[in-house]
Amino acid sequence: MRIVLGVGGGIAAYKVASLLRLFTEAGHDVTVIPTEASTRFIGTATWEALSGNPVSNSVFDDVHLVNHVRLGHEADLVVVAPATADLLAKAATGQAGDLLTNTLLMAHGPVLFAPAMHTEMWQHAATRANVETLRSRGAAVLEPASGRLTGADSGPGRLPEPQVIFEAAMALVQGQSDYQLPLAGRIVTISAGGTREPLDPVRFLGNRSSGKQGVALAVAARNAGATVRLLAAHMDVPPPAGVEVVRVETALQLRAAALDAAARSDVVIMSAAVADFRPAEVSDTKIKKRDDTADPVISLVRNPDILQELVEQRNSGPAGSGQLIVGFAAETGDSQGDVLAYAEAKLRRKGCDLLVVNHVGTDKVFGQDSNSVVILSRSGSEPQEASGTKTEVSEAIIGRISFELNHVSPRA
Ligand SMILES: Cc1cc2nc3c(=O)[nH]c(=O)nc-3n(C[C@H](O)[C@H](O)[C@H](O)COP(=O)(O)O)c2cc1C
């Protein structure tokens, strides 16, 4: 496929190098057209080297090739990223002062804008009107992500992640003209990894959670267009790019972080392995091994039930019934009942909207790259099975969450 990749003059231009890579690695022939302003952020040498094609932003280069007409005409897809406020205005008013704007006027195939700018610029009536105009003419304009902007401030206006733009572009080419990613504009909080409950400064009670499933969920939610906040307890894997990370150690720290983040979230996914109990007393100094004392006994106290508190906070707060809460149950069956029976009882008891049930044993789930789950829903729909790599399972879970958010509402 022939793709024209227009690059606007914003800080986020650097992220577009990764987008270009995604296109070329998928086998597409990409011509990059950086605007004059964008070359103050990323030079043309980067685009030439990564695309393997000549790069210009002038209608007066290689005039014999009539690039100002040809490029738009021949392109199967035009993507503009970052689409600055200025570029959106130029495109909406049909200006043709450089090679990119000429190409946009000549485009025969689908056109996708991925905006990035400060929140005030994005929310300004002029930009809103320009976006509406472009959409009414059939262009796809992605919603920007929320999060940290150029300075210390944050809000909607971040360039969506390269994978998100890539997926939207491919969907657009497949004819989904009004395509928006299923979690576009949504804020998703995900807890991952295992908590550690200190006994003394060097010892703790922990668990076998690697964080792989939580990280895969964060990637899937990010790729579905969400702004993701990852509450990372102890993990064996690094957190992914493009998500905000809050580090926690103990169940109590995770509780505080989760209740705080949930107040600003559309979806909360509690996939961390949280200790049910913690040592009643934590020694300030290392507990010594001495031959003349009795064997030590560790007394445990119950940790708070974070999932239940999240449901209570949701039901009593302004987020009301709009928020979707997803629990994870790592169950083993026993003589009293099977895994699903325990999980269904847990779903009813906790009042969360979805419960993802793992069947665990020492060789199952923890630290592995694959998983097999059943997703139970409070809305009464059939349990859904998902198995495969943790990435595939995460995509199924995020798909189910998107479906519940966009098609099943409201939640009581
Ligand atoms: C450091 C810096 C960062 C900028 N970031 C953005 C941005 O993210 N979005 C935007 O719309 N404009 C941004 N601007 C302003 C644009 O560069 C300016 O409007 C320019 O004319 C846009 O050119 P273009 O139409 O080639 O994109 C930024 C300017 C500077 C100096």
TrEMBL record:
Q: Which cofactor does it need?
A: Mg(2+); FMN
The UniProt annotation puts the region (Phosphopantothenoylcysteine decarboxylase) at: 1-187
Q: Does the keyword Cell membrane apply?
A: no
Q: What pathway is this protein a component of?
A: Cofactor biosynthesis; coenzyme A biosynthesis; CoA from (R)-pantothenate: step 3/5; Cofactor biosynthesis; coenzyme A biosynthesis; CoA from (R)-pantothenate: step 2/5
One Pfam family, short name: DFP
Q: Which residues form the DNA/pantothenate metabolism flavoprotein C-terminal domain?
A: 183-401
Query: Which UniProt keywords are listed?
Result: Decarboxylase, Flavoprotein, FMN, Ligase, Lyase, Magnesium, Metal-binding, Multifunctional enzyme
Q: Where is the Flavoprotein domain?
A: 1-167
Chemical reaction(s) catalysed: (R)-4'-phosphopantothenate + L-cysteine + CTP = N-[(R)-4-phosphopantothenoyl]-L-cysteine + CMP + diphosphate + H(+); N-[(R)-4-phosphopantothenoyl]-L-cysteine + H(+) = (R)-4'-phosphopantetheine + CO2
Q: How is the cofactor bound?
A: Binds 1 FMN per subunit.
Ranges for region Phosphopantothenate--cysteine ligase: 188-412
Q: What is its EC number?
A: 4.1.1.36, 6.3.2.5
**Which residues of this UniProt protein bind CTP?**
276, 286, 304-307, 328, 346, 350
InterPro entries assigned: CoaB-like_sf, CoaBC, DNA/pantothenate-metab_flavo_C, Flavin_trans-like, Flavoprotein
For this chain, the family text in UniProt reads:
In the N-terminal section; belongs to the HFCD (homo-oligomeric flavin containing Cys decarboxylase) superfamily.
Give the protein's biological function: Catalyzes two sequential steps in the biosynthesis of coenzyme A. In the first step cysteine is conjugated to 4'-phosphopantothenate to form 4-phosphopantothenoylcysteine. In the second step the latter compound is decarboxylated to form 4'-phosphopantotheine.
Which HAMAP family has this protein been placed in? CoaBC
Q: What is this protein called?
A: Coenzyme A biosynthesis bifunctional protein CoaBC
- Species of origin reads Arthrobacter liuii
